[in-house]
Amino acid sequence: MPAAPSSGPHPSSLAGAMTEAAQLHRAGRLTEAIAIYRRVIKAAPKTAEAHNNLAAALNAAGQPREAIASYRRAVKLRPGYGVAQSNLGALLVALGKTEEGLEHLVGAYLHGDKQIEGGSNPMARDRLLASIAPLAPRRAGPRLRRALERLAADPEVDPQRLAHPGAALLRRQPPVAKLLQHLAADSTAALVAGTLPRGLYEALAAPLPLILLSDALIADAGIETVLVALRRLWLAQTCGAADGAPPPLGLFAAVALQAAAGEWVWPESAPERDQVDLLVGRLAARGRNAMLDETLLAHALYRPLETLPEAQKAALRELGGTLPAGPARDLLARHLTEPRAEATLAAALPRLTEVADATSRRVQAQYEENAYPRWRRLTRRPARPLAEVLREQLPGAPLALPLAEAPRVLVAGCGTGRHALATATRYAGARVLAIDLSRAALGFAARQARDLGIGGIEFAQADILGLAALEQRFDLIECSGTLHHMADPEAGWRVLRGLLAPRGLMRISLYSERGRADVVAAREMIAREGWQPTAEGIRGARAAWRDPPAGTAVPPLTESADFFSLSGCRDMLFHVREVRFDLPRIARALTELDLVFLGFELPSESIHRAFAKQFPAPEARRDLAAWDQFEAENPSVFAAMYQFWCQAG
Fold first, then answer.
1. CA–CA separation, 346 vs 423, rounded Å?
2. Which residue numbers in the chain have pLDDT < 50?
3. In a domain, 156, yes or no
4. 393 and 296 fall within a common domain
């Protein structure tokens, strides 16, 4: 990322040259930009910004090692230069030099350029987040741990992005590693309180794990194994069937929140179900007597508190309002207060169209039962003009300008609102209409918008197929993961195309046939075994993947975050309708709809780098035939989805 020209004492000609080079860089004319940066450096070799910007251009031009050398010079010239330090760290991580890269990223986040960025370091924060999210660090020194804890506690950061590295670090904590080793022999064996590893509860209740347990979904098989075993122990202790006392209430409540985040998808035994029934009877006998104790928390480990008598739920809501901030208060809010608010908000939302199509009704029924995805927070960034975002996201793309300064945006198929709310906060001045089939999902989205204080967005129930009569026209339509659940995806896409304003943009996400090969195999296995899209059926399927019979090959799905929640598993493996695309089919649709392909959004810059090595011409980024060849040789590159931008021709 090039830095803005410094306001320091540079000659005006050099400042002008820096500006010209930055403009060429943004336009994708990298060779010319590099030449100008080199001339600036020759004239003023101690200009740290020039070395940083040269490095960014070199990296974009596929010369990462030369870029590293230039970044190092920028940091040496100006120690604490946060922009260059975070750029260097991100590139080192991308090239596999993880530990060195993290040192630079952490340094930029904790200490870099505070006098310039007001102490908040938003750019350094986002670079550290983007780089650390997919990693599994082997260890965390004091600085990395401090950075992770600060990120997790930041209300402007989605802790879900820290779940993977946080779980990896937690697994390596000695008491957790010791318990995992014990459970490896028999994960269903009953734990005994007196033999729990010393310091286990302290490790789980440390600041980072406690936040992740409370506010994220920890998609990690090892951590799930630990929590399932502890849940079984704590239930038995609460019922008097095992010795010892359950853990401190804060940790107990945090693990109950984690169970709820996965919608109680963890395996249950018949004795556990009997013990839960015992707790239900105890709680029912309390009437209006609201108590936050082990009995209530053990019940919440297995079932939503929504099943309690109405009088007791009302008393617990009142109790929740008196508790200090923390997992216990959050648990009562998520079980009792938030669902009631979501139902009220959902009932008041307008309905723009009927849901008449048979497939749409089946999809609607699925998401009324299992609204997806469940989420807690967003990573918030300052809103930026749409044109600026696109120039950075799609360098050199043939955008038809000007783009709207206050774009009218349609999010078609918004689900529980994470995508829609991220869109509303991403583009300056955006006015967003977000629609979905499911009122349950819309109620969750509206409640999140209210709780997070995000405005500029309207929610409504509608079927895409019925939107042709809508009079509004939109500068941007975002449709992520929705068209491929329709009976005829191209028919839905055609309706959305008719709602585009002149020069309007679309951001579309579709399943890839190649990328979903493992999911297709899993769905075929589910059909053979007869597992149903119920809690018991989904638990049965998960058990087969977690512990397959000897000699049985199963598709590798346990790395997916969707595997760790009930709604996620249903969406991934049990969906009532799934259509997969290939790139020739997308190319045909773009031609038929008079849309110009602008480029892909990819989860990793390393994918762009590998593609550019095989197809070095800048225009190849927008050649779907080249991408089809690249995907054929790298079938997992679009394992999540094809996510791409296009514009009305």
1. 21
2. 5-11, 115-119
3. no
4. no
